[in-house]
Design brief:
By secondary structure, the protein is mainly alpha-helical. It has two domains: 1-75, no CATH class; 77-281, no CATH class. It has eleven helices and no strands. The chain has helices at residues 2-30, 45-54, 56-74, 78-90, 93-100, 107-113, 119-134, 143-167, 169-202, 211-237, 244-280. Helix 1 crosses helix 3 (56-74), helix 7 (119-134) packs parallel to helix 10 and helix 7 crosses helix 11 (244-280). The protein is elongated, with a radius of gyration of 28 Å. It starts with a helix and ends with a helix. Keywords: Membrane, Transmembrane, Transmembrane helix. Residues 262-281 are annotated as: Disordered. The chain crosses the membrane at residues 12-30, 50-74, 194-219.
């Protein structure tokens, strides 16, 4: 029963904490402007009376609901942040230059092209693509093949967790836990930076020092998102789930590779036959 409740609790956790932090920042900005006593004809009279009638526990419950609403509106997913970074990077001149200047065996360059994946996932997915296309492991000269395969895999990444849920619920549970942890860290990092900045302006400049730890927490959230994507990569390379766009690319690349090999074999046989005829003469 507890296991079935955990995913729902994870869904509540990030927006609730995020909303509370943003409300605290709002309180620091405008708390001194909130009146303690209101006139009888004031529009705030009814809310103040309700708090007095219902008591502080009810007011806290209402505040929690408001915090959840605020957090739900302002929450961002770690996967969306990672994807946005990749899209911004992919439109930069540096990305295009680095993409077209990949050298054979440039594994570091491949990792730079796939910021949503860990180095271990980049290596595993690269080997999987090469083995599926060529039928054998040929790491040294297949950098471009891997880079193109990564592009199609990353396009399918947002929907792979849904496929994993239908294929293996235990693995999906591990993925969901890491993804929820990533969302929490990223959102606390962002909202915490806002709160630290507001406190640095309103209370004391030294509060702005907390922006540093919040940035570290934000980066840790992106790292957790990459670890969650590790599970999706391993699910693909072990054939638990399929990536439709990657499968389409692999089939096309494998067909092209076979045709190229057949042409090379035919030319080699023709060249050997010509050499044999020359030797007989």
């Amino acid at each position: 029963m507890l296991a079935s409740l955990l995913p729902g609790i994870r869904e509540l956790r990030a927006p609730l904490v995020t909303g509370y932090i943003y409300l605290l920042a709002l309180l620091l900005l405008y708390g001194n402007k909130v009146p303690t006593n209101v006139a009888a004809d004031s529009p705030l009279k009814l809310p103040y009376d309700l708090v007095g009638w219902l008591g502080k526990p009810t007011a806290i419950a209402v505040s929690t609901f408001v915090a959840y609403l605020v957090g739900s509106v302002l929450e961002v997913h770690a996967a969306t942040v990672s994807r946005s970074f990749r899209k911004i990077r992919s439109h930069s001149k540096l990305f295009k230059k680095r993409r077209h200047s990949l050298l054979p065996g440039d594994e570091r360059g491949l990792k730079w092209l796939a910021p949503e994946l860990t180095p271990a996932s980049v290596n595993a997915l690269g080997r999987y693509i090469v083995e599926r296309v060529r039928g054998k492991l040929s790491i040294s000269y297949d950098t471009d093949l891997k880079a193109e395969g990564f592009k199609f895999f990353l396009q399918d990444l947002p929907q792979l967790h849904t496929r994993l849920y239908g294929a293996n619920k235990d693995l999906y549970g591990d993925y969901d836990r890491l993804a929820a942890e990533a969302d929490l860290k990223v959102n606390v990092g962002i909202s915490g930076n806002v709160l630290s900045g507001v406190a640095g302006v309103v209370v004391h400049p030294l509060w702005a020092i907390l922006c540093g730890p919040m940035l570290v927490l934000f980066y840790r959230g992106l790292s957790s998102d990459r670890q969650a994507n590790d599970i999706l990569v391993q699910s693909v390379v072990t054939d638990i789930v399929k990536s439709p766009k990657l499968e389409g690319y692999i089939d096309e690349a494998a067909s092209h590779f076979r045709e190229t090999e057949e042409i090379r074999t035919a030319r080699r046989m023709g060249s050997d036959h010509t050499s044999h005829d020359d030797d007989e003469r």
